[in-house]
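Data card: per-record layout.
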Amino acid sequence: MSLEKKRSGKKIERVLLIYPPVTFSPQSMKQSHLPLGIAYLAGVLRQVCEVRVLDAAVEGHGHEERAGAGYLRYGLGFDEIEQRIVEAKPDLVGISCIFSSQFQNTLEVARRAKKVSPEIVTMVGGSHPTFLSEQILSGNNESGPTARSPIDFIVRGEGEFALRDLIEALGKGQSPETVPGLAWAEDGRYRESGLRAPFPELDQIPFPARDLFPREKYHRISLPMGIVYKQRPFMNLITSRGCPYRCAFCSSTNFWGNKYRTRSAANVLTEMDELVGKYGIREFKFFDDNLSANPGRAKELFRGMIERKFNVSWNTPNGIHVANLDEEMLDLMKQSGCYELTLAVESGDPGVLKDIIHKPTDLGQVERAARLIRQKGMGSYGFFIIGFPGETKAQIQNTLDFSRKLDLDRISCFIANPLPGTELYEICREKGYIDKSYRFDRIDYFEGRFSTSEWTYQELHRLRHRWFWKYNLSLLLRHPVRFFARYWPILSRPGLVYEIIKRRITA
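The structure for this 507-residue chain is written out next.
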């Protein structure tokens, strides 16, 4: 679509929002959770136009195919996605690209939209395109130079109101320059409008349009992030955006405008009322980067859950920081239905935490939190990362030893991968560990992608593999009662147990 046609006025009456198929390594577990990003977009856009959604990952969850050497892809095939676009007859197709490993799928969906009709406006949003917008729109991507990009616009950062404003601008024939937060190509040149300020009042954003999605399919598949659940059906939600910290390996803070924002407890409780009363949800999955970063708000939320007698279970599969997990906080969490907390520890070495990843974690607080969680009868899951640039073998061993010391119910040990928009990526480029040929679409947190003078990525893979099995299998021997109590909902599904074993054997 030429810029001249964009400016001549194109009324957007029908929008199709697509969550593309998912590329994953055979050692990773597939997931099935409602994509909150396009659900929030749909909640805003349906105030100005007709909106349809297509979660290709859940619609074709049982379908797997090869996606290059050593990788698989699950979800609807691209021919089927193309047919869905034909049936929807959209004026605009918006495609989510949260993870760098999904960009090639996002790009192919955009190509299919243009194949259906060159007049369809294609828009992409998410973390990867936000930080690599110029590279994408110039027609260069991880697999090398390509023809002109099939993507008309990239929404950089928070998307709800940028996309709404773009739709209105196109209808009036106005220049994209009038809409903050966009990137596009014009006459072969990369262009972008000014950055959009983070929306200050999250309570004013409509709830995700969950009614547009095939909710019964998510409930039937029941494969949440982190695998574990206590009750079905469950549903993910998010009560804040961003994080107050600036960890070197994480792009979330930059993506959300370097500002931590929260919804009020009252607003979240209203959404919970809808989830429980309208949709029959029995378990919440909090996808916040840091649910308890504002301890006063968090405690108000948990008290409200108790007072309203939701009688739900919940956990934090995306992780939580330990700083505010005092005894009062944990008591309220437990009373409101929390059965497991994922502790985002990352490293068990003080030097790595302070000097390399800049995470303000006190390892003494981690130990205390792990002990209190155990005493309260809640489950504990730990996130650890090894292989940071500048990290020594001794520091890596400190992390593994510290994870054992905590006596958590389970752990995941990942290998650091440089992501666009992170300090880690810039450091790896400066030190020559990676170059312009670095393949973002091959990011895999179970595999390393660079070596240093201290270690090779092959050594990290072997170390991580051995430690994963050594730790998690030892839980069954150390705490058999705790093991079966925690994982009975999963153990009662033989097919899921088989899938976990099949994936993890290669992990």
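Known properties of this structure: Confidence is low (pLDDT under 50) at residues 142-146. The longest strand covers residues 338-346.

See the next section for split statistics.
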